[in-house]
Amino acid sequence: MARTHGIRSRIWFSLALLIAWSLAVYKIISAPIPEAIIPLFSIPIGLLQLPAYLVWSSTKNALHRTLVFPVLAVIIEWIQYSFTPFASWGVAAYTQVDQPALSQSVALFGLAGLGFVIYWVNAVVAEVILYKRYRMAIAPTCMLVLALLWGDYRLDKGRSIAQRMMTVAAVGTDSDIGGLPLPTAEENEADIRGIFERTQQAAHLGAELVVWNEAGFMLLPDQEEAWQDSIRALAAACKTSIMAAYVVPFHSPQFHYENKYILVSADGTIHQEYLKHEPVPGEPAIRGVSKQTTTLIGDVRVGGAICYDYDFPYIAKDNDLNGADVVGLPSSDWRGIDPIHTQMAAFRAIEQGQSVVRSTRFGLSAAITPYGVMNAQMSSFNDDGKLMVAQVPSQSIQTLYSIIGDLFVWLCIGGLLGVWLLQVARRKMISVGVLGLGAKVDSAERLKSKD
Predict the structure, then answer these.
(1) Which of 118, 165, 239, 432 is within CB 3.0–4.6 Å of 92 for a Cys-Cys bond?
(2) What is the pLDDT of residues 247-270, one digit of tens each?
(3) Is 163-398 in CATH node 3.60.110.10?
(4) What residues contact 445, with CB distance under 8 A and at least 6 apart?
(5) From its phi and psi, is residue 211 left (phi > 0), alpha (psi between -120 and 50) or beta?
(6) What sign does the CA torsion over 128, 131, 134, 140 have?
(7) Using one digit for the tens of pLDDT, what is the confidence trace for 381-434?
(8) Is 8 exposed, middle or buried (0-12, 13-18, 19+ CB in 10 A)?
(9) What are the boundaries of each domain within the chain?
């Protein structure tokens, strides 16, 4: 597209971009997710990102072109995960989930900072390939090397510091509830028994906090209070805190449910009752609107969220504002997004400097440090007893991103507006200059004619 002109080439590129995004979404589709949802995600995301490529191809100045593209791209990504239901899926930073050193840079400027480096490098590579402008590669290459060196230093420093640890556990479920038909009473009670038994095992192994899978079982509205009492009794008997996640279905006026957890302390007190704030598009869950809270367990402040919630950086930020040291994250995935969805949650841990305990049904459970390191992992597809016990740092660490938030994005927006205003002013000055020159020429010709 950089070497072509006209609307036809732009249309073909747009179609190619939508096809590319459709193939990317297709890669994460597996049972029980239908292939019919592919265009519902690929088309909006593709169209949202299209303007960055169109502006890049129409910018004549090479230096401007290589900078405007990453600036526009990270602004568009920020709009996506801040204001749309598609969260942070598909952002460039997640391409580095297997690069722990480079991933550390999100502790500085969030997804936008790392995304900028990635897009900048790619824009310059395009210049080198298309126009042989090798010198342009110096600045982004230096930035990339600095990011890698700083990331290695941060990881090494994190390993060398003595940290107080908290013993945590992820407890899995046998439930496959995902909508209608609902499990029978016998199946549901068997699921609950399994979770209770594994929780007792986790407590016996020293777990101070036990996190259950999202939708670990089902409670009918008239059963919830009685079963909450049973969970409270379990926590008191085990002398451990439990983040108990389950669903409460309703059938009026149509099928929907509360996707929630309660946090019960070791004395049997319910401290948090949280409804999923960001249901997956199409999920018939009642959206939670109550303010997030944290609970002191010993000297560790514990916060929480549910699965897709942590694909939105703002929810992790809310936990940070509430002083969370450790975040419990009941989750439920499917084969197609395993293990990428858990790796995405590790970015929230790095951004806010929190430990995260992701307890996952149909996916990867992990105990994640504030540096994004997975101290323990457990796949629900393996026959391992659906119980993971691990240790994570019990105190959060302060990061630059936790202080400045999305300042980098706002600087990008300000810079883009500034360049646009300068361009407008320059065109006006040129226009005024041309008009003034024309007036002078006209006056001179009139004087000549009079002579």
Answers:
(1) 118
(2) 999 987 788 999 999 999 999 999
(3) yes
(4) none
(5) beta
(6) negative
(7) 987 789 999 999 999 999 999 999 999 999 999 999 988 888 788 878 777 665
(8) exposed
(9) 7-159, 163-398
